[in-house]
Specification:
- The structure is a single chain.
- The protein is α+β, with helices and mostly antiparallel strands.
- It folds into three domains: about 5-230, Beta Barrel (Thrombin, subunit H), CATH 2.40.10; about 240-335, Roll (Pdz3 Domain), CATH 2.30.42; about 355-485, N-terminal domain of MutM-like DNA repair proteins (Alpha-Beta Barrel), CATH 3.20.190.
- About 15% of the residues lie in helices and about 35% in strands.
- A hairpin with a 2-residue loop joins β25 and β26 (about 430).
- Residues about 10-20 have low confidence and may be disordered.
Length: about 500
């Protein structure tokens, strides 16, 4: 069977022994601070973007932190229409709202409307990274149970992992060598009565078993610090890619010492933090006085981690110092850090209504990971534009990749089905860089509109008069309340 990393809305039941009887008093005290969350979800429909989407419910776990707030996973409360929370031993449902959410780090903070909800509920205290081979306890509400569950696992690895909620962001994660099943996502992971992580994802399938992950305290603290000013700015990024320099011949060719230091900068992303300061071909020797190993690792908190972890702990606008090897000499540069906005297209999107334009039964949408999940890759050209959007700087010419996602059959668009999944290049000879460009060009007065597609020799030609005659007919036939939505 195939194995894959999964976010569980109702997450970890660590399949080890429960807390011993001597811990009963401690567990009773902690359980007051562990909260059950019920989310009424409405998922967007990317195949019919004018539809509101299907409804469902999911349950997860959260816990009380300082400031009368609840910390949980972002995936527990995403696409929410109505949230309620429950205290242990209290049958009442309390309405709650998402105060802050970080989809890139899968964390969220909730507020509860009723101020009496927090009475008698102690805030759990954050600790630090747990040590390898140490034991941790996971608190939460596993699937199929109404009462709090307490289970134990052993820390087996501390490493960078892709957070599957966004599908594109990688952060520090702590691996627990215990099976994680659908259960209590967002539940606190404790050691010595202090929080060392938030359980959030695990592997499913027959290949990788007894492997689960928790979000560690450094990620939690950074999220909470980011929102102190009332706004979440997202993670910052150097905006470079690099590869290791372990090969002796490569190192000699670059004039490097035989000291196992430095990685080769292969890409500097345009508009990123390092644009204009770091060059392709530079060797990164150090970051904020931390030596960078030839494998891209640095020593931090007595652990070897990816050099990106130094940047991960900083906020938007903060600086990082880089030591570079360029042209046979060492140079230092300071980089003001900012989020890498162009990677949002390649990540999963939540809490947003899909944008679209329907014209003559032709449905146009921006390319995104959500779009790929709904329609599939759609051919080599579409896959190339998606995969290489950042590395090939395609975003400079195409802030949005506008795709003809579907053709709603009607006489006005007969024989145009073969253009499905094509990328729009021009309308009436003018470049289409965004969905708003397309909307404006199709609204311009003209007897015909000529739509050119990337890689297609034959354009789509639509007579404006015939399109007008078909508008009401198409909207009624396919129950389309509005012909376009371009976002807020």
């Amino acid at each position: 069977m195939r194995s894959h990393l999964t976010v569980f809305l109702l997450l970890p039941v660590l399949a080890l022994a429960s807390s011993p009887p001597s811990d009963k008093g401690r567990v009773v005290e902690i359980r007051k601070s562990v909260i059950r969350i019920t989310n009424s979800i409405q998922l967007p429909d990317y195949k019919a973007p004018w539809n509101p989407g299907g409804l469902s419910k999911a349950r997860g776990t959260g816990f009380i932190i300082a400031g009368k707030r609840i910390l949980t996973n972002a995936h527990v409360v995403s696409n929410s229409r109505y949230l309620t929370v429950e205290r242990d031993g209290d049958p009442n449902l309390y309405p709650a709202r998402v105060a802050f959410i970080g989809h890139d780090c899968d964390l969220a903070v909730l507020d509860v409307e009723d101020p009496h909800f927090f009475e008698g509920l102690p805030a759990l205290e954050l600790d630090k990274l747990p040590e390898i081979e140490s034991t941790v306890s996971v608190f939460g509400y596993p699937i199929g149970g109404e009462h709090l569950s307490v289970t134990r696992g052993v820390v087996s690895r501390i490493d960078f992992q892709v957070y599957s909620h966004s599908g594109v962001d990688s952060h520090l994660a702590v691996q627990i060598d215990a099976a994680i099943n659908p259960g209590n996502s967002g539940g606190p992971v404790l050691q010595n009565d202090k929080v060392v992580g938030v359980a959030f994802q695990g592997y499913s399938g027959a290949v990788a078993q007894n492997v689960g992950y928790m979000i560690p305290v450094p990620v939690i603290r950074r999220f909470l610090k980011d929102i102190e000013d009332g706004h979440y700015d997202r993670y910052v990024d150097l905006g470079i890619s690099y590869f290791s320099l372990l090969n002796p011949a490569q190192r000699r060719a670059l004039g490097l010492k035989n000291n196992n230091r430095g990685v080769y900068v292969s890409t500097v992303i345009r508009t990123g933090s390092c644009d204009g300061l770091v060059r392709e071909g530079d060797v990164l020797l150090g970051i904020d006085a931390y030596p960078v190993g030839s494998d891209g690792l640095v020593w931090l908190d007595k652990e070897q981690v990816e050099l990106s972890e130094i940047v991960e702990r900083k906020l938007k606008g903060e600086d990082v110092s880089l030591l570079l090897w360029r042209g046979g000499e060492e140079i230092s540069v300071r980089v003001a850090l900012k989020p890498l906005d162009v990677n949002l297209m390649q990540g999963n999107t939540y809490d947003e209504r899909p944008c679209y334009v329907e014209y003559a039964g032709l449905v146009f949408q921006p390319l995104s990971r959500n779009y790929i999940n709904a329609y599939g890759a759609g051919g080599l050209r579409l896959r190339y534009y998606f995969d290489q959007y950042i590395n090939e700087s395609l975003f400079l010419e195409h802030p949005e990749i506008v795709v003809l996602s579907d053709v709603l059959a009607d006489p006005v668009n007969s024989y145009l089905g073969g253009y499905r999944q094509s990328i729009v290049s021009k309308v009436d000879g003018k470049a289409v860089k965004t969905l708003r460009d397309l909307s404006a060009l199709l609204a311009a007065p003209a007897p015909v509109h000529v739509i050119e597609m990337e890689g297609e020799g034959r354009p789509v030609v639509l007579e404006t008069k015939e399109v007008e005659n078909a508008r009401t007919r198409i909207r009624q036939r396919y129950h389309i309340p509005e012909e376009q939505y371009l976002g807020n």
